[in-house]
Write a structure and sequence with these properties.
10 strands; Rossmann fold; 8-stranded mixed beta sheet; 18 helices; two-stranded antiparallel sheet; 12% strand
């Protein structure tokens, strides 16, 4: 079946919706790149895919065309009805033609606009039990939030780290770039949750292989979803620039519940994901990601592939689990050691760790030496395994719990 991504600009204009710059909304429009991402996920009938930042459904069509079961995660309340309507309109077009044609773009826009208006009025929340093997129930505001998790269950920003903990402002964005209550719909909507938890809806006209989760992409509980899906899902998406660090760290934290991940990120972030110790781009994000995944840059993507055009070049990266199994306690110590070491990047290891932990430099030095490391070294020269040993040593010296 031929797949054509929706006309993003026309659909947004017809619905009176503008891309939110503060949310880093740059919609991917290039068919070749969309196909590349879908292929890299390995999506198929037996492999569910969680897409973060679903937008208007461009990538979803390519995933569904490969027979995948897709859970589309979108935080923007203005885009959720558009996403559902657009995908519903496309499905109706292919069903009417026996699945061999794509609905014309002009008709697609009209249908999407009409259904989006209707969806806004109803904001229907339905039972998604019909997904069979991949059954996930809707979360209504009647107390059934247990099915996909409440805000506490899917995680908060404190659990995955602040912008200072995962890199520079350029990597993950500043506080000013975060969405305001007005943009998110106010109140709990700013975090993608409601009084009854995250909201799951089904796109009009779609078969059970597609569901839409209205939630913060940075707070998805992959472990919980993997249990519901009865298998490890693939995670993919065009990540908002100011949230990329937070999302990447969360996906790394829950690697045991993820088969692989394929993301569009800022090229600078991609370079950090693949950087080796000692390289200029190697930093805390490199360590936190590489402790869980082996990263590979699949393609650089120019600004012209998006609407609106970003000011920087992007890249598609694939993250494959490294297969190293650590006890949760050991992993926490590794992460704590890395955060302490990178707390003052330009300082020697003993000084940065001592400052972060509030411990005497001489005690920290002894712990570092016991780990087989040089107290005068700098954090960017240490490998993931070095940080693992450092975490163990700091624990033995009672500097970490």
């Amino acid at each position: 079946m031929e797949v054509r991504p929706p006309k993003v600009r026309a659909l947004l204009e017809a619905a009176g919706v503008k891309p939110k710059r503060s949310w880093g909304q740059n919609f991917l429009c290039d068919p070749g790149v969309l196909a590349l991402i879908a292929d890299a996920t390995g999506a198929g009938p037996d492999l569910p895919v969680i897409e973060l930042g679903a937008g208007l459904g461009s990538l979803r069509q390519y995933l569904l065309a490969r027979g995948g079961c897709v859970i589309a995660v979108e935080r923007d309340r203005e885009l959720v009805p558009l996403l559902a309507a657009t995908l519903g309109a496309c499905q109706k077009g292919t069903e009417a033609a026996g699945g061999s044609q794509t609905v014309p773009a002009s008709r697609q826009r009209r249908a999407a606009g009409m259904e989006a208006n209707e969806a806004r009025k109803k904001a229907a929340e339905t039972d998604l039990g019909g997904m069979g093997k991949y059954a996930i129930r809707a979360v209504a505001e009647d107390g059934t939030e247990d099915e996909v998790g409440t805000e506490d269950e899917v995680g908060t920003e404190d659990e995955v780290g602040t912008e200072d903990e995962v890199g520079t402002e350029d990597e993950v964005g500043t506080e000013d770039e975060a969405a305001t209550e007005d943009e998110a719909g106010g109140g709990a909507g700013a975090t993608g949750t409601h009084a009854g938890g995250a909201r799951m809806v089904r796109a009009p006209g779609r078969e059970a292989r597609l569901s839409i989760l209205e939630a913060d992409a940075g707070a998805v509980n992959y472990q919980r979803l993997a249990v519901r899906l009865a298998c490890k899902p693939v995670v993919c998406g065009n990540l908002p620039y100011q949230l990329s660090g937070r999302i990447l760290v969360r996906v790394a934290d829950q690697v045991a519940s993820v088969r692989r991940a394929v993301f569009m990120v800022q090229l600078e972030v991609a370079n950090r994901l693949v950087a080796a110790p000692g390289k200029r781009t190697y930093g805390l994000l490199s360590v936190l990601a590489q402790r869980a995944y082996r990263a590979e840059i699949l393609r650089r993507v120019p600004p012209g592939a998006f609407f609106p055009r970003p000011k920087v070049t992007s890249a598609v990266v694939r993250l494959q689990p490294v297969g190293v199994v650590r006890e949760a306690r050991d992993d926490r110590r590794l992460v704590a050691a890395a955060r302490a070491a990178f707390s003052a990047r330009r300082k020697m290891l003993r000084n940065s760790v001592a400052g972060a932990l509030g411990a005497p430099a001489e005690v920290v030095s002894r712990a570092i030496v016991s780990a087989g490391l040089d107290p005068r070294a700098r954090a960017e020269t240490l490998s993931v395994e070095d940080f693992s040993r450092l975490g163990e040593a700091l624990t033995e010296y009672r500097l970490l719990v």
